[in-house]
Specification:
- It comes from Halomonas heilongjiangensis.
- Pathway: Isoprenoid biosynthesis; isopentenyl diphosphate biosynthesis via DXP pathway; isopentenyl diphosphate from 1-deoxy-D-xylulose 5-phosphate: step 3/6.
- It is a single chain.
- 33% of the residues lie in helices and 28% in strands.
- It is globular, with a radius of gyration of 19 Å.
- With 286 residues, it is α+β, with helices and mostly antiparallel strands.
- It has ten helices and ten strands.
- Strands 1, 2, 3, 4, 5, 6, 7, 8, 9 and 10 form a ten-stranded mixed beta sheet that branches.
- The model has no long low-confidence stretch (mean pLDDT 97).
- It has two domains: 155 residues, Ribosomal Protein S5, domain 2; 109 residues, Alpha-Beta Plaits (2-Layer Sandwich).
- Strand 8 and strand 9 form a beta hairpin.
- The structure holds 4-diphosphocytidyl-2-C-methyl-D-erythritol and adenosine-5'-triphosphate.
- The site of 4-diphosphocytidyl-2-C-methyl-D-erythritol has 18 residues, from strand 2 and helix 5.
């Protein structure tokens, strides 16, 4: 028997298919140009309503205090914004590595925002939920809108795009990268000339690069080793500030073979496909 009121929702991963750092704002945040695409792989959240207004999250994440967990922060923000007096019991099935560049925390937050909006019958539109989400992290709005996107600003100015949808072999080099450490590194280049979205799309996947790669290679030798190993077999990039690296394959059969080889070499890896529409929105019908 399903639990009454239970809502089970995906929190998909993202890849940055391209990442250009074109400047730095006075507040220290970096101006980016990036292409976001979702993956058919991610975390799962199970939500049930509570009448007493309490918020409970299980299980705890290692190294993350409950009040810092982006799921609870998203839930509290939504309660404060709307005056809603309902609460929730939230169970998190965590599959995405933390500090992996796959946007797991941001995606969990977006799923909490859209899921609780539904559970509590709030009826907020995506624009308002995205504005709330931006206060939690630069990557939250794209997960709220649920469309693969060309992003500018700090990642919040979004234009929906339809990208190619290859298979990917993603390697997690078993190290957590600190996003602030990468963005704070002296050697990071911050002066890539901006390009238009049309030019970026015209160039296609073979022209796409990630400006964080050189810095992440220097700071995290495990990531450099994974990039070297994978790129000698298929076109490979870093996602976000890492740690994960991904190879792009034209068929599932080729991706399967590469995954098997990676596993034999004891890499922690998984196979997935790029999707331009978030599976979260498909479940919610939004
Ligand atoms: C690099 C990306 O993964 C690309 O998708 C994201 O822009 C990072 O997004 P995120 O993890 O949601 O980042 P946030 O939690 O907002 O920021 C973490 C830290 O990264 C730095 N940061 C982040 C985003 C950005 N455009 N410029 C920055 O300088 C800031 O020091 C910030 O304190
Ligand atoms: N629900 C959550 N899931 C994962 N991390 C969380 C969560 N809540 C808070 N955090 C904190 O956020 C940090 C970043 O986690 P996340 O998994 O989003 O990294 P990431 O994939 O590198 O993100 P990005 O690509 O956006 O930089 C974690 O190290 C953790 O301290």
């Amino acid at each position: 028997m399903p639990e009454p009121g239970l809502l089970t929702l995906p929190a998909p991963a993202k890849l940055n298919r391209l990442l250009r750092i074109i400047g730095r704002r006075p507040d220290g945040y970096h101006e980016l140009q990036t292409l976001f695409q979702f993956l058919d792989h991610g975390d799962t959240l199970h939500l049930t309503p509570r009448q007493d207004g309490e918020l409970r999250l299980m299980p705890a994440l290692p190294g993350v205090a409950a009040e810092d967990n982006l799921i609870l922060r998203a839930a509290r923000l939504l309660q404060a914004e709307t005056g809603c007096r309902l609460g929730a019991e939230i169970r998190l099935e965590k599959r995405l590595p933390m500090g992996g560049g796959l946007g797991g925390g941001s995606s969990d937050a977006a799923t909490a925002l859209l899921g609780l909006d539904r559970l509590w019958g709030l009826g907020l539109d995506l624009g308002r939920l995205a504005a709330l989400g931006l206060g939690l992290g630069a990557d939250v709005p794209v997960f709220v809108h649920g469309r693969a996107a060309w992003a500018e600003g700090i990642g919040e100015r979004l234009t929906p795009v339809e990208l190619d949808t290859p298979w990917f072999v993603v390697i997690h080099p078993r190290v957590a990268v600190s996003t602030p450490a990468v963005f704070g590194a002296a050697q990071l280049t911050r002066d890539t000339p901006p390009i238009t979205m049309a030019r970026a799309l015209q160039g296609g996947a073979s022209s796409w690069r990630n400006d964080c790669e050189a810095t992440v290679r220097e700071l995290y030798p495990e990531v450099a080793r994974a990039l070297d190993w994978l790129s000698s077999r298929a076109p490979t990039m870093l996602t976000g500030t890492g740690a994960c690296v991904f190879a792009r394959l034209p068929s599932e059969a080729e991706a399967d073979r590469l995954l098997a080889e990676a596993t034999r070499h004891r890499w922690q890896a998984f196979l997935t496909r790029g999707v331009n529409h978030s599976p979260l929105h498909a479940v919610l019908g939004r």
